[in-house]
From TrEMBL:
SUPFAM superfamilies: Clavaminate synthase-like (SSF51197). Belongs to the iron/ascorbate-dependent oxidoreductase family. Pfam families: 2OG-FeII_Oxy. InterPro entries: IPNS-like_FE2OG_OXY (IPR044861), IPNS-like_sf (IPR027443), Iron_ascorbate_oxido_reductase (IPR050231), Oxoglu/Fe-dep_dioxygenase_dom (IPR005123). Residues 37-152 form the Fe2OG dioxygenase domain. Signal peptide: none annotated. This is Fe2OG dioxygenase domain-containing protein. The lineage of its organism: Eukaryota, Fungi, Dikarya, Ascomycota, Pezizomycotina.
Amino acid sequence: MEAFLLECLAVHNDLLHLLEEALHLSPNALTSRCSAGNGEVRITHYPPVPIRQLKTGSTYRISEHTDVGILTLLFQDAVGGLEIEGQTKSSEFIPIESSNLNEMIVNCGDTLQRWTANYLRSANHRVTYPPGLQDEDALIPARYSVGFFGKANMSASMAALPEFASRLEDGVDIDERTAQEYYNYMHERTVAAPAKVSA
Ligand SMILES: O=C(O)CCC(=O)C(=O)O
Ligand SMILES: [Fe+2]
């Protein structure tokens, strides 16, 4: 497990270096804000559930939300049901293919959205019934996923990088929170109102 966590941290770091290059940011603009290697691995087990319960909305596998961190690296089994909301105005949720167990899904989180002043958008996602299952009496089998959630240094700023300041009103980010303050705030919000959480 620890080896997997370290591997995920390395991949997360590599992806952020690639983003720095692709976005023409100064070297380490993103990676210096997460140099402490904060992140967690979570294995989620979704018990079998009648499709009817998910269709009526009386039960969720996981309701729509965005992840608070930088990038999420997600691995899922073949059961399916993960959906990501498109990012245009009239968007709908798009089912994510689950047949290839070697695929890694990369989601942008709220932290990266803030650092880029909304240039990169945090992915709103949920887990519901898999596509193609129509029989309301059918039982959806158990599902497992493994997620790595990359987090910023606790003392890192949540403000936009200077490179994205021109996207902000008046060119100044008034968010003075540290990542720790922001993560605590989001945690409180999730516990208080778990139905829909976004940045
Ligand atoms: O199980 C999944 O595929 C998604 C899990 C998830 O979105 C989360 O734990 O934040
Ligand atoms: Fe998530």
